[in-house]
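fyi for ur records
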Amino acid sequence: MKSRPRIPQIREEDRTALVVSLLEIIQIQQEQIQELRDEIARLKGGNPKPPIKPSVLERKAGGREHKRHSGKRPGSAKREKTQHLEIHETVVVKAQDVPMGSRFKGYEDFTMQDLVMRPHNTLYRRERWETPQDGDIVAPLPDGVSNHGSHFGVSLQSFILYQYYHCHVTQPLIVEQLLELGIDISAGQVNRIIVEGNEVFHQEKDEILRVGLKISGHINVDDTGARHQGRNGYCTHIGNEMFGWFESTPSKSRINFLKLLRAGSTDYVVNGEALQYMHTQRLPPTQLERLAVSSMTVVAETEWGEYLSTLGLTNKRHIRIATEGALLGSILEQGTIHPDLIIVSDDAGQFHVLRHGLCWIHAERSIHKLVGFNDAQRNALEEIRTQIWEFYRELRIYKQTPCKTKKAELEKRFDEIFTTSTCYATLNQALKRIHKNKSELLLVLDRPDIPLHNNTSETDIREYVKRRKISGSTRSDLGRLCRDTFTSLKKTCRKLGVGFWQYLKDRVSRHNSIPSLPDLMRLRAHESPG
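which gave:
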């Protein structure tokens, strides 16, 4: 492979604005060419490109430096590991060859943990009586023994669900594992346990979103690819520190996102908020007048397309804007969301609705990825990165102790940083783009309760990336529904401190001794300060 050609040195007096811009374009093109070469090498089985280093904000604000100065790694504190351990069996070990005259001084304990994995098959011999008049009487099965006629117990069904949805074990491997353990089960029976008879779980998942949107002052949102039936699709994540909710759809448009925010509602509402949105999106006045026939119009989802057609809205752009506005009107009219809800995203266009905040980590990446091709540009980049990180640290401090004086200082400091003119034209353009998003990046000054980043969604949605690498795509609509449901339940359990294994056993057995996850979310929101 040919080496990268070197950019010739140009004298300072010859560095006109045009020459500097052209040199930067050459530098960017060289980086893109190198990325393509790395990708070709990876596809051919060669060495992949080197790993991407973490952002400066991630390294300095919360990660490696903290670990380096904290003394011990997290979780390394000493504790009594067997203090609260349940003992299932006690074995007394006799000492051998004890000399005469020795005095017994009690026991020295040694605790060993183990896991018993073996089949446990139960035959229920149900009495059957023939009566003189009413036919046969057969004794019913004990409570909790059978789940919709299944011949597999609660622990076995929970184990299959846990392996598939929590541990990402594929169905063939689950079948192989169970057969080796002595369970007589077929691939079809495993599949039925994984995707069928889970209506209780689906209902709880739907309620998680309804409650989450109602009690949350902010949500983090993101989406990723999720193939279905061999075709590309998308999965949208909505969540925060209390819950995680996923829904797979063929589209990731703004219309799709607004439909999800309706949380089960299906009406389209044209009201004042809807018309204001349409006006902001520059829907022509003629179309606005046709839609504003009354103070509020409610249209069923199945009739919305026909309703727009009768009003003469046939242009695709006009239909899109009207639909987005009516969906937003439905959300606000029915009160499905918190009145002060803020949506935090990575600046993807489909999420720019309601009051919107941006992720600082994503904003900083546009600076972090730049590479200067001379010392002056490299120094300018380093100085700007340092200033951004220091400003980010000040925002974190402000979140803990907000005040009006500090707010004014931070607003002024933001303008100073992101209107800086450097010797690097590409850096200047990146700074200007960030400055245009000032209101969304500094929303935390008005709402210190919202996060500065979108890491919640970034972390939660990795679940789908791992699943995509292991299993590819879902093949049935029911399979896709179950994937979304159990991923939502698993993430929400983790955030609420509920063991997913215990949760599965509780719900499969129908004991319901663990409160519903939406109820636990309400309790968490009530206990949270502010």
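Confidence is low (pLDDT under 50) at residues 62-67. thats all i got for now
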